[in-house]
Write a structure and sequence with these properties.
It comes from Streptomyces xanthii. Helices cover about 60% and strands about 10% of the residues. It is an alpha+beta fold. Strand 1, helix 10 and strand 2 form a beta-alpha-beta unit.
């Protein structure tokens, strides 16, 4: 109606008519002039597609996956949105006019044989009394008109529902944006899962081993027990802090999840080694690189890799682990060795573990490599070897 009224302001002066709505031809001309105005506003307004998609989802029974969300991103998508809006508005305007005019006229036809006042009106139904057969067919004609009106509405609804996915569906740019959004979300989820696995998994392994060692020497070595209990307290306190940070990120909206805090080699390598040794595990560490000089991202990921290497040693070996960190050309090299159990494999875990996969993922995201398995030339030894790229600097390679 707003577009029709606006167009009538133009059609009236152009045709010299003082009352546009008293002439059906001028009404149709105003209607035709209003459609381009509707298309123009639909193309310019970013809210047209979200509103139209909401209408289609509510009324047309279209699969939501076939419709795009948000404003159109490209000129082609805006053109399709304008086409849908104009088509919807045009069909709705025609059906609205028919709904206003047809039912009263059809009801009058149905009542014509039974209401003499209608038959006597020459303006409405002139000379119907002169044709009894026509009078008898009037109710049938009225019913046919009502059925035809319902049929027109059903056909228009079906056509609009069929055309909606083509005109309001996602464009290639929309699909690309959705894929990127899903990929970013999965990346954040995977990172948070790795953070929780490495942090909580290491803490549980360390605390279990420390508590077990303390229980065995409870009566014979009180100093060791006190040291183990202090390590348990320190480990759990740090892990609860990391867990709170990760869960806080999960509760936040937007892209804040990409900045989940995590310890680094410079912050806590010594503490990590100390807490691991407190459980009775012999940890031999050789650090030939300055942790404070590493890039923050590499330092953070390297810390988690070292943490997971120690966790695996605690779970599967529990006796000793040798760790080395050094610069190897343009990469940080992390090597961890520990003895295998007597059967040559770690104890079975229900559902399997994700630690080695997490190490490989962290190395790959930084452009590095990771390998793990029985050490070649050293039977009974498990070897983890990780390379993380660093800024170029000439140093001797690790033999």
């Amino acid at each position: 109606m707003p577009y029709l009224l606006l167009a009538s302001v133009v059609v009236g002066p152009l045709t010299g008519a003082t009352d546009v709505f008293s002439d059906l031809g001028l009404q149709l001309a105003s209607f035709a002039c209003g459609l381009p105005l509707a298309a123009l506003t639909a193309a310019l307004s970013p809210l047209t597609r979200p509103m139209s998609v909401a209408v289609v989802r509510a009324l047309c029974g279209v699969d939501p996956a076939e419709l795009a969300d948000g404003p159109p991103r490209t000129r082609e998508a805006r053109a399709r949105t304008a086409a849908w809006f104009t088509l919807h508005l045009g069909a709705g305007g025609i059906l609205s006019g028919m709904t206003l005019a047809v039912p009263p006229f059809a009801l009058a036809l149905i009542a014509l044989p039974f209401v003499p006042a209608l038959r006597d009106s020459d303006k409405l139904f002139p000379r119907t009394a002169d044709h009894p057969w026509a009078l008898a067919l009037m109710p049938v004609a009225g019913l046919v008109m009502l059925v035809a009106l319902a049929g027109c509405a059903a056909v228009a609804s079906g056509l609009l529902a069929r055309w909606a996915p083509a005109l309001l569906g996602p464009s290639p740019a929309d699909r690309l944006a959705q894929a990127e959004e899903r990929a970013a979300d999965l990346a954040v989820r995977n990172r948070l899962a790795r953070e929780l696995h490495d942090s909580v998994g290491h803490a549980l392994s360390a605390v279990t081993l420390q508590a077990s060692a303390a229980r065995r020497v409870l009566d014979s070595d009180p100093d060791f027990v006190r040291e183990a209990l202090a390590a348990i307290e320190d480990t759990t306190r740090r892990t609860v802090g990391e867990l709170d940070a990760v869960l806080g990120v999960l509760r936040e909206a937007g892209d804040a999840a990409a900045t989940a805090p995590a310890p680094t080699l410079a912050d806590d390598l010594d503490g990590l080694l100390r807490r691991t040794r407190a459980g009775g595990t012999e940890v031999t560490a050789r650090v030939d690189v300055d942790p404070a000089g590493l890039p923050p991202l590499v330092s953070r990921e390297a810390y988690r890799i070292v943490q997971e290497a120690l966790s695996n040693a605690l779970r599967h070996a529990g006796t000793a682990v040798a760790l080395r960190l050094a610069r190897d050309g343009d990469a940080l090299r992390i090597i961890a060795e520990n003895p295998l159990p007597d059967d040559g494999a770690g104890p079975p875990r229900p559902g399997g573990g994700h630690g080695l996969r997490g190490i490989a993922d962290r190395a790959r995201l930084l452009g590095g490599t990771a390998s793990a398995g029985p050490a070649p030339g050293a039977p009974g030894t498990w070897l983890l070897d990780v390379r993380l790229p660093l800024p170029s600097r000439k140093e001797p390679k690790i033999p």
